[in-house]
Amino acid sequence: MDAIKIGQHIAALRKDKGLTQQELAEQLNVTAKAVSKWETGHGLPDIQTIEPLAGALGVSIPEIMKGEAIPRETLPLPPAETLVDTAAYVEEQERLKRRSMILTGSGILLGALGIPCAIIGVLASGSSDVPGNLFRVIFTLPLAGALILLVTGGILLIKRYPLIRKAVKIVLLYIFYLCAVLVVFQMASVYNFGDNPTPMVMARLILYPTGLWGANLLLLWVLRKKELI
Predict the structure, then answer these.
(1) Structural domains counted in the chain
(2) Is 181 a domain residue?
(3) Is residue 120 part of a domain?
(4) 69-94 burial, b for 16+ CB within 10 Å, e for fewer?
(5) pLDDT on residue 85
(6) Residue ending a domain, choose from 27, 62, 88
(7) Residue 81 in contact with residue 96, Cβ under 8 Å?
(8) What is the pLDDT of residues 118-136, one digit of tens each?
(9) CB 124: neighbour CB atoms within 10 A?
(10) Which of 203, 217, 225, 228 shows the shortest CA–CA distance to 173?
């Protein structure tokens, strides 16, 4: 069961109907935020919501649960297949709920511990200017809050738009290969981090990660085409 696939299909059907997330939410008596979570793959409609959702989008219930178009001539699906799909759907829905609870709890816990840990760190630093250090910590809290809001906004943006999410994954993959090549160069004494890189080293640092990165993307593309992942 692929929640992202289901979400993308719901979004495509909604847009085909010319509905906004708010309009669809009003028809289903849910919030626009709930619809947004479905479409980004961070949640799934409740079982009791699937039937009105399918009606609002003009498709069958199995099509919503599978996240793909089902030809009319193949409906209705065999009962056994329907039961398997329903069980897998409920399992995926529960998994997403557990993940959301864990992420929310972790965020609250880290946020609650952040300021006390910073103050304890100042008090335990051994510096004689404890009041001055405390003042500096308090003075930087607004900047820290702004940074948290900026990063949170970026994460929400990445989650909302699949293309941005794919772009970030591709960039992170390249950075991973770049770091791996740097470590190998260091271990092989080809380049030491403290030295200024020569033109040859710079060329290698560009070409080697790029080659590995491109080969990795090609392999992923082939695996997806073969429907192996």
Answers:
(1) 2
(2) yes
(3) no
(4) ebeeeeeebeeeeeeebeeebeebbe
(5) 63
(6) 88
(7) no
(8) 566 555 555 556 566 666 6
(9) 8
(10) 217
- The residue count of the chain comes to 229
Residues of the domain holding 208: 165-229
Among 88, 105, 120, the domain boundary falls at 88
Confidence at residue 19, expressed as pLDDT on a 0 to 100 scale: 87
Please state, rounded to an integer, the average pLDDT across all residues of the chain: 78
Listed range (36-45, 73-82, 111-120, 144-153) with the worst mean pLDDT: 73-82
Condensed to tens digits (0 to 9), the pLDDT of residues 40-83 reads: 888 888 888 888 888 888 888 888 887 877 766 555 554 544 54
Global pTM reads 0.47
User: SS in 3 state form for the chain?
Assistant: CCHHHHHHHHHHHHHHCCCCHHHHHHHHCCCHHHHHHHHCCCCCCCHHHHHHHHHHHCCCHHHHHHCCCCCHHHCCCCHHHHHHHHHHHHHHHHHHHHHHHHHHHHHHHHHHHHHHHHHHHHHCCCCCCHHHHHHHHHHHHHHHHHHHHHHHHHHHHHHHCHHHHHHHHHHHHHHHHHHHHHHHHHHCCCCCCCCCCCHHHHHHHHHHHHHHHHHHHHHHHHHHHCCCC
One-letter identity of residue 222: V
